[in-house]
Amino acid sequence: MKWSGEYRIIANDVDANDIVSASGIFRYMQDAANSAMEADGPSYKELYDRGLAFILSRMRMSSYSPIHVHDKVEVQSWACESKGVQWNRCYRILRDGMIVAEAVSVWALCGVQDKKLHRVTEFDFGYRTDDMIELDMPARFKIPEDVEMRLVGERTVEYADIDINGHMNNTHYPDILCSYIGADMRGQRVISLGISYISEAPLGETLKIYSGISDGVYYVRTIRENGQINVEAEIMTEAI
What we know:
Elements: E1 3-8, H1 22-40, H2 44-49, E2 52-63, E3 72-79, E4 87-95, E5 98-111, E6 117-118, E7 150-156, H3 173-178, E8 188-197, E9 206-214, E10 217-223, E11 229-239
Antiparallel strand pairs: 1-3, 2-5, 2-8, 3-4, 4-5, 5-6, 7-9, 8-11, 9-10, 10-11
């Protein structure tokens, strides 16, 4: 059973190509997930008040058709069978009954203060569930070793990037990473994006950004000031 909500794309949600960008797609999916949690309980805020927070670990998104301003879309989100410390959730965006984007994600439920990981079996949440979408979601995405990764820039995490947890919100990463793949995104759109969130990027931290390309696939890695990997991503685009 899937949670479903209707959305109307507003002008502020589209990019220079006059379509919803990868980060925009992530935001609609995330809003649907938050709405599903509120409908079924506990909500994200209720969990946070209990000292718990869902932290995104991995996400794989496929986009099949551009989404334009004032499009009316249906966005679905639902929990999937989960085990251990991995909490799975899926998403779909439909327009006129046709799927235009879908994604699978893996989350960790952590203590806000102690960062302790909590197992699925510790809780009996009421989130509605359904079958997992069959997208390629590896156990842990890694950039192939034969891809030459070059330092292409640095970016400092700003106030506008962070969320209630004090680090860069997961929905901000796709558009930021696309700015450093070495290609002009004007006239291009993301059709596939896989991203692993490995460590948090807090306010004020400066990330070093590395990118490479192999067989038409772009790879991006961000490194924190302490040398830890922040995120790794695989991005595929096509001409609009």
